[in-house]
Design a protein that fits this description.
Helices cover 39% and strands 17% of the residues. It is α/β, with parallel strands linked by helices. Bound molecules: zinc ion.
């Protein structure tokens, strides 16, 4: 959404609150006690009341704003900033834009939005031709590991392992200078290690078993041939990685660049939230102006798992 449109539609707290109420009605308000989907709106109390059992719930209950005391307009401005450009904004920048004194509540707000982006994408199963590989993201070294000597390479305390999966179909006769494959949806999941059992558990959950996989030839991927219709396990010369696994590597490199530009260090325990946002926007790269509405839609229908966590 363009800035002028945002200002026109959401000039104040009341307009944001009313839009959120409309969105909740559209998504369907469900009674937490009896499951009834018919409610009255009690405007004097600003609550929904179940027509069956009389149970009341606030406008924010069971949504991304559950338990939040921040103004509705803060949430709307944050949703606008996160969806207005191809890139993104850090919580520190959003805090600055809002002119809010404290960092922690805004940081929580932004992470809650990232958390529901992940929840929404969890509903989607990747299928067809699939690239799969592991990436190593730079993260801050946890305090209890700072004493140990720094290990090099993939096992370094300053790296966090991420399983990266992309729907990727070969293009017939690609034009000169274009990619040999076209990309669909992607997923990125933080993993504690590269054991086959760790990777198999995620792959079986997020990839349709009828898919054809391509990956490099490592011990992490030995079971794919039994789990999926096809698995091409290739010994990849690093200079050919762009031909064999182009999209997982483009996704990894774009995400790394974006994180380095935007954030002053990423903590390992929060990396998944940043990946959620990156994938959510990548997977909706053609949505354009509709992205704000989509985020508002999931904001009204999902409660975040990101609660009671503190920064640093
Ligand atoms: Zn009820």
């Amino acid at each position: 959404m363009k800035l002028f449109e945002f200002e026109k539609h959401f000039p104040d707290e009341e307009s944001c609150r009313e839009r959120f109420r409309q969105q909740r009605i559209r998504e369907g308000v469900v009674c937490p006690k009896c499951g009834c989907v018919h409610h009255y709106w009690k405007s004097d109390k600003q609550m929904f009341q179940c027509k069956e059992c009389g149970c009341r719930q606030s406008l924010r209950a069971h949504t991304v704003m559950h338990g939040s005391k921040l103004p509705f307009r803060y949430w709307f401005v944050a949703m606008h900033l996160l969806t207005a450009t191809k890139h993104s904004f850090s919580a520190a920048e959003i805090q600055r834009q809002l002119g809010h004194r404290r960092y922690q509540p805004i940081w929580e707000l932004v992470h809650k939005l990232r958390s529901i982006m992940g929840k929404r994408d969890d509903k989607y199963t990747l299928r067809g031709n699939i690239e799969i590989d592991e990436g190593f993201f730079t993260t801050e070294i946890p305090a209890d590991e700072k004493e140990q000597p720094l290990k090099r390479g993939a096992g370094s305390q300053a790296k966090t392992k991420v399983l990266v999966i992309a729907e990727s179909t070969e293009v017939e006769n690609p034009k000169k200078g274009r990619k040999p494959k076209s990309v669909g949806h992607i997923k990125m999941v933080v993993i504690p290690n590269q054991k086959a059992s760790t990777i198999d558990a995620i792959a079986s959950k997020v990839i349709d078993p009828a898919s054809s996989l391509v990956s490099d030839d490592t011990k992490s991927h030995v079971n794919f041939k039994d789990m999926f219709t096809e698995h091409k396990s290739l010994v990849v010369d690093p200079k050919d990685i762009g031909k064999v696994l182009p999209w997982v590597h483009i996704a990894i490199s774009n995400a790394k660049t974006q994180f380095a530009d935007l954030y002053h260090g990423v903590k390992r325990e929060f990396l998944q939230e940043y990946l959620n946002e990156f994938c959510y926007k990548f997977n909706r790269r053609y949505f354009g102006e509709d992205l704000f509405d989509r985020l508002l839609m999931i904001g009204a229908s999902y409660r975040s798992d990101f609660e009671h966590r503190t920064y640093g």
